[in-house]
Structure formats: structure tokens, C-alpha cells
Amino acid sequence: MSKLATREKIVEAADALFYEQGYEHTSFADIAKTVAISRGNFYYHFKSKDEILDAVIDVRLANTQLMLDGWEVEGSSPAERIRNFIYILKTNQDKIKRYGCPVGTLFSELAKLNHSAQEDSRSIFSLFRSWLTQQFTLLGCEEEADELAMHLLARSQGVATMANAFPDEAFLDQEVAQMCAWLEIYVARGKSKQAKRQT
Amino acid sequence: MSKLATREKIVEAADALFYEQGYEHTSFADIAKTVAISRGNFYYHFKSKDEILDAVIDVRLANTQLMLDGWEVEGSSPAERIRNFIYILKTNQDKIKRYGCPVGTLFSELAKLNHSAQEDSRSIFSLFRSWLTQQFTLLGCEEEADELAMHLLARSQGVATMANAFPDEAFLDQEVAQMCAWLEIYVARGKSKQAKRQT
DNA sequence: GTCTATACCTGGATAGAC
DNA sequence: GTCTATCCAGGTATAGAC
Hints:
2 copies of one chain form a homodimer.
Chain A lengths: L2 H19 L6 H8 L6 H4 L3 H22 L7 H14 L1 H7 L2 H12 L4 H22 L5 H21 L5 H28 L1
Helix pairs in contact in A: 1-2, 1-4, 4-8, 5-8, 5-10, 6-9, 7-8, 8-9, 9-10
Chain A binds a DNA duplex through helix 3.
């Protein structure tokens, strides 16, 4: 098998396992089993377990960027794009109910481990944060855009955590609906500002 | 040293370390160092590491109950009591910024480990949930009381997670203020209902 | 590139002296 | 009750054959 293909398979398997079992709790043996390679083979592709984590975070960053870029389709409005963000909870609800949010739970774990990759994992949050800030700015809420971005991120994180703790509920749907309703306040506010500017 | 005193010291040290470092990442050696006993001595007091975790969860449950009971002081209103809950974030902000919420992060970790104590740790959430539900009911929002309780829990969890990821911000204060403002809607709604009943 | 064998360590847990 | 000594499983990491 080519070098790249195996490396990619390792990262892919590690990505899933780190999400489902946590970073520390996932052993080389676990990854080796799903990729079907020997434990020794890892060290041809990576110097250490930490390097696998770095690669996983890089992949998550890249995939997140791709997702955000994918929402910038022709004719889409910032409100629609923010709604896409809110709907991540709905789209991934099964996994979220089982494992929580991949971004939040990884960051929490690395924070407790005092791991050197903690800052890298925070940058996934930063990616969402700056993107949301941009969308709220486009919506016409420039002064409070970052505050609104952080608020929405926090709401999502909270819903993910509680949906993980109480997965048997209509809770997630309710909260998604409420977040969309909350967004409408700022959509309306942005429109009235635009109207003022045009007069 | 008396049996009880040592046992309590172990639980106390484990409680703090599980919060700061995570359950799995905390070793007997870590606890032994802070309590200043030998590793072998643990097994006089506990059969296994899992039993220490059980004891820690029991202590947290008891302390939470004590805190909630302490808020039922003479003349206090349900609104004030809910505000006390919101203010936990402010009171514990230093630790939250460093380690997140002790309830949420423990549950998340145990969920990933697929640990048998997962349900016990969820019961700490349940304690808050049922208490909040009761307070919202007293406030006059009986139909939606549990929904409001879950909403407030989720907001707190989200704020704790994001304050952990971005601790350098005025973010936590803003969110606490917004949660208090949000509460006022339901305080007002409850009052108008009461007024109707009295006519 | 991938394997097997193995070194080395840390973690939880046990046995038995004191 | 607390200690020391020790066991054993499992983890990361290395060496070297293929």
C-alpha cells in the first residue's frame, strides 16, 4: 500500500476513535485493529502518538474550512449560513447524543491533560468564531458580531453537552428552533439598519 | 490516623484531581502524593479505582444538595434561587476557565470511557434539573418548567465550555447578565399569571 | 512499507510484614 | 491502619528482519 494511503487511513481511524473514546483512552492497538496494520508500523508514518493527534487536528481544521466554504454558495445570505451552522446539531444529532461535540470534548480533554496540542484544538473553535463573526457583520451587526458569535457557539456547546447527558429527549429540536428564532431578531435588526442607510 | 479521616482525605484529593486532570489521567500515585500515603494503603479503604470514583460522585451529589438546600433561606423567591444557580458561573469562574464545569466534564469523560459510573454522574445533572424545574414551577411556569430547566442548564454548560476555551474574555460576565435578563421574562410572565388568578 | 519481537515504563492491584 | 515489595496487564516506543 502506498505511504500516503496508509497514513490517511491511520488519521481517519484515529479521528473517529479520538472522538468516540477520547484521545488518551485510545491506544495504538485500537487504531491498529481498525486500520488492520501492526502496531510497529505506526512509527514509519508518525514519530509519536502526539503527532497523530496533530494530524487529526489538521484534518479537522481542513474539513471545517471546507464545510464553511461549501456554505458560501451563490445567492446564499449570511442568515442562511448561520442557520447552516445551527443545523449542525440536527444533522449530527445521533453522534452528538452518543459522544458530545467533537470540538468541545477534544478541547476539554486536552485542557485537563495540559497537552501541548491544546492550543491547536482551540483553533477549531477560533475558525468557527471568526467565521460566525464575519457572518454577523455581513448581517449588519458589526459592533456586536463577535459577542453574538461567542453566544451562538456557547449555545451550541451547551446543547451538545446536555443532549449527550439526556439523549432521549425532544430537547435538541427545541433548542435548535429557539436558536433559529433568536437569530431572526438580528436578521430583522440588520434589515432595519440597511433600510436606514438607503434613505 | 483514623480510618474515616484518611478515607475522607483520599476522596477529597481525588475529587479535586479528577476535576483538574480528569479521572483516567489521575493515577494512584498522584492521589498518594497529595494525601501523603502509600499506594498500597488505598486498598484498605477502597477495592478499586472505580470505588473511589463512586465515592467522589457521592460527595459531589451531597455537596450539591447542601448548596441547593442552603438557597432555600427564609423569604427567598424562586427567582432569587435561580439567580443563585446562574451565579455559580461567576463564583467559580477561575476554576471554570481553567478546567471547565466539573459536572459536564466528568460526564463527558465517563461517556467516552463507556464507564459504568456514567449514570451516577448524570444524576448530578438530574439533581440540578429537577431542582430548577421545581423553581420554575414555583415561578408560575409549570407547563414549560422542565424545558426551561434544561435550557438554563445548557446555557450554563455552554458558557463553561467556551470560557474554558477562551478564558481571557469578558465573555462570562456578558453571558451571566444575559441569562439573568432572560430569566426576567419568566418572572414577569409568572407575576401576570398570579395576578390573573387573584382576580 | 510492513512485519515481529522486544524493551521499557506506568498503572492498577495483591501479599504479607509491621 | 499503613507500609514495602511485588505482580501483571497494557501502554508507548525501538530494533531489525523481510
